[in-house]
User: Which sequence fits this backbone?
């Protein structure tokens, strides 16, 4: 079982091996949207109210009994501390009552483990693109337990850039899906010039702050001059610039490391243009592409259960003094326990 409560969604899922048997979610997004963002205290209270029922539903929908569970994995970090504590406290009590092992799952490793749920035969080595709300990196998976960072963002994460640009365009959070919707109102062409995005430079590192500033400056300049502009054109031009660099650097990393497989994870991996570009590039290069289903790219508990299964196989179990952590450095996350 995997339990995830790092932000505003309370989620629980059951996997058997790499097969997702159930994946339940309760969101406090409707309440949060009244405040224009996630209020940590509201999130924690909503988790407390939802967690028992969500876990019960996940077990029922999996068609198993509580006693059939092998282990209980829970996101211990990173995320909102109060929100994480609800999941961690519940998981401890749940595991203790069932006399099953407890597993500390890292949220980011969960995003990466999501790929396992859609490819029973996926084995390292492979190159993976991590593109989420708080992280952007190209990684080399050496083994199930160990990833090496080939490059990462020097400033904003890709998802953060989608969210900030969405805000400038007057679109709601989360930015990614709303930017995709906005683009569909135009012809989807990148007609507005955008900065180069460390293309061909900076190794496998990324920088999104220049792109974000370019969009803000374009919109403000047009507004100050009283000139009309197409939000769909801005969104499409931004999306191409933001995504192309992710694809180019991932493919370059795959070529340089000589892997045969590429995977991706994190909320931005749900982006249709990114998925299409990656799939075209992998096909052209003769590489296998493993993309988690879209709903398993954004935060969910199936990815935490999948990461739990990885740690279970590696024999990494947590003690009952497990604590929640608001932040976990990426290098520590990826180096294994
Ligand atoms: N279709 C999409 N296109 C582009 N971006 C998307 C899409 N769907 C979601 N996102 C982005 O993904 C992010 C949310 O996903 P994710 O769960 O990976 O982030 P997070 O949990 O906030 O951050 P992290 O996992 O790094 O801690 C948001 O920034 C959102 O805009
Ligand atoms: Mg996430």
Assistant:
């Amino acid at each position: 079982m995997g339990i995830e409560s790092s932000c505003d969604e309370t989620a629980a899922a059951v996997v058997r091996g790499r097969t997702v048997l159930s994946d339940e979610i309760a969101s406090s997004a409707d309440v949060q949207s009244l405040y224009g963002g996630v209020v940590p205290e509201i999130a924690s209270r909503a988790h407390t109210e939802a967690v028992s029922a969500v876990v019960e539903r996940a077990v029922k929908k999996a068609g198993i009994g509580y006693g059939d569970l092998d282990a209980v994995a829970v996101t211990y970090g990173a995320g909102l501390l109060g929100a994480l504590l609800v999941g961690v406290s519940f998981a401890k009590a749940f595991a203790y009552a069932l006399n099953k092992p407890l597993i500390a799952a890292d949220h980011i490793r969960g995003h990466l483990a999501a790929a396992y749920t859609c490819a029973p035969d996926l084995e390292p080595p492979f190159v993976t693109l991590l593109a989420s709300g708080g992280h952007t990196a190209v990684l080399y998976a050496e083994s199930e337990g160990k990833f090496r960072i080939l490059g990462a963002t020097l400033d904003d994460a890709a998802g953060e850039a989608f969210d900030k640009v969405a805000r400038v365009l007057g679109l709601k959070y989360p930015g990614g899906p709303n930017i995709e919707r906005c683009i569909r109102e135009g012809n989807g062409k990148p007609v507005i010039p955008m900065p180069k995005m460390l293309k061909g430079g900076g190794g496998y590192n990324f920088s999104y702050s220049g792109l974000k500033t370019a969009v803000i400056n374009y919109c403000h300049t047009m507004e100050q001059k009283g000139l009309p502009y197409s939000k769909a054109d801005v969104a499409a031009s931004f999306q191409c610039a933001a995504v192309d660099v992710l694809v180019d650097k991932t493919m370059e990393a795959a070529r340089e490391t000589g892997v045969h497989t590429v995977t991706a994870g994190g909320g931005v991996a749900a982006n249709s243009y990114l998925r299409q570009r990656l799939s075209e590039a992998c096909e052209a290069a003769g590489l296998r592409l493993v993309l988690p289903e879209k709903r398993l790219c954004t935060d969910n508990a199936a990815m935490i259960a999948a990461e739990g299964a990885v740690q279970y196989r590696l024999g990494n179990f947590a003690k009952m003094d497990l604590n929640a952590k608001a932040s976990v450095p990426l290098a520590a996350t990826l180096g294994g326990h």
Observations:
- Strands lie at 2-4, 9-16, 19-27, 72-77, 102-106, 126-131, 136-143, 146-152, 261-265, 288-290.
